[in-house]
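Researcher: Quick sanity check before group meeting.
Model: Go ahead. Protein one:
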Amino acid sequence: MSISATNVSFDDYTMWVELTDGRTIGVPLAWFPRLLQATPAQRARVELSRTDLHWEEIDEDISIAGLLAGRGDMTKKVESAA
């Protein structure tokens, strides 16, 4: 993927991700429970890589591809209909 994050910021309800192609996307913090529960200082300690956003302290990894596809937290187990 050639699109990367250049900056990440937050307001009370949204994570804002600035991308190398000039777009800024906003996603609800509710999509990512670890970020929702994190302190503002913890959220600010994001590490940007070519393909991902990473927060070591809260053990959160978010892919840019996932954000662009509209995916939230994928660590939740989906219960199958029996």
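Researcher: Fine. The other one?
Model: Protein two, sequence then structure:
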Amino acid sequence: MPKTRTMPDAELTCPLCGAAVPVAAAACRGCHLPIADVRRHTVSASRTGRSWTRAVGIRVVGVALYAGIVAWCLWQLPATLPFVAPAAVAGLVLHGVRARPWWGLLAFAALVVVLPFLLAPALGTGAFSDLADWIDDPQW
């Protein structure tokens, strides 16, 4: 039977002790960390190393999106600013700062849709009415 040539095992780096760990090993030989944990660390480290541009892109899109929403509402629907501005801040924190775009969108939608629905009986009276009149004032 002919002898087949095999490639040497690729090696991973142990996150605890820094030793080289063969892929076929059951654990790190230096600190006995299971190979599943070594692989998980290697995969997560390689993801974070290559995706910093994507993370910056997500944050820039979040800042532009929520700034655009506030600017459009200021220009077209200034009476909605008491709801849109805090929702945009919540969305910006989750999307632009924490890089969680879906949570930012969910928080924004909840604050813009659910909060006015809950406060609908009070929207035509008192402070909300005065605030809307002050925002809609042409001298502003």
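Researcher: One line on it for the slide.
Model: The longest helix spans residues 52-76.
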